[in-house]
Amino acid sequence: YIPNISLIRVAKTLVIYIGRCTQWRNWSGFWLLGLCNNFAYVVMLSAAHDILKKQETANTTASVRRQICGNSSNSSHYDCNPVSTAAVLLADILPTLVIKLSAPFVIHKLPYGFRVLFCAIMAATSFLLVSFSSAVWMSILGVIFASISAGLGELSFLSLTVYFSRDVLGGWGSGTGGAGVAGALLYSGLTQIGLSPQITLLIMLYCCVVVLLPLNVTEERTTGPLTLTEKLHVIKGLLRFVLPLGLVYFAEYFINQGLMELLYFPKSSLSHAEQYRWYQTLYQVGVLVSRSSLCCFKCRKLWTLSLLQVLNAVLLLLAVSYQFLPNAWVVFPIIFYEGLLGGAAYVNTFYFISKETEDRQREFAMAAASVGDSLGIALAGLAAFPVHRHFCSL
């Protein structure tokens, strides 16, 4: 009898151990998927900017390159680029937005393996196009392919999480947050040591292969397809999640693309480029921290996160207008806090959608709700144009 009790205890311990290993395996798989899915997206923005700048240098005169806001004889009070960074943002986000608006209604007809393979091909194509770009249109096309890969991958992987324990959402969120930091640091580091953007992008093609590896750990199953009426009903119920998520990202990217470039302090020991680089780095670190926090912190009050982010945008808009902030060191914690709010809104939105949606509707709901952040980003890009033009004309 005593040996039997020991065997039962050993069996229970073994089951718990296997369960934890499976849980950790799945969490790690989705972390890797999140990292690879957003990696090309992040790197492509930096690389396309470098190559576009190189092409502009080759095709424009020095006097035109020095032109600010359309008139070289009138320098703006703000240190502005001729075109807002929102232009590249729109080229990057609009294909994703189109995919997220349409794909959830038909994407269930394609197996997950095919979707991931297509995303890997799109990402590889974007790397090759931008690395060998000889014209502006090729660089923009490369950014568009990266956008297609990231958008289709995001809604597919979010849908795939419904077949696993809910904690894999934390792995996915942490991986996507890590992509921002890893992509920016790796690209900057390789170019800093002397590699050209072209060689750097070719090295990063490995990411397109790595994204295929976690498919071996998926446990794919299918649920019965929803009718169009049922899908529209689900979308109506998702508005309480999608609207606050969209507002968070509208305020967030309005700051990043409309205001961040204008938050320049000439008397600082840091150059304008260094200040902007630190803004972006701290923002990405904040996103990484909050997207990795789901295991220890959950917030159901999504509208609270939205309003706090709007307050951030209003504060920084007033700071640009009236220049009452003394230096960049005061802006740094605000930007970090901005990243915290955005990342927290993202992971908590999809966690509570997964928790509060019926089983049969959950897969479609996760894909459909992914449009919220892209819609907010696209609207922020549009709003950033007149703001940039206004301040640069002063």
UniProtKB/TrEMBL annotation:
Membrane topology, record value: Multi-pass membrane protein
Give the organism's phylogenetic lineage.
Eukaryota, Metazoa, Chordata, Craniata, Vertebrata
Q: Cellular location of this protein?
A: Endomembrane system; Lysosome membrane
Q: What Pfam family is a match, any one?
A: CLN3
What domain of life does the UniProt record list for this protein's source?
Eukaryota
Which protein, by its recorded name, is this? Battenin
Task: Give the signal peptide, or none.
Answer: none
Coiled coil region boundaries? none
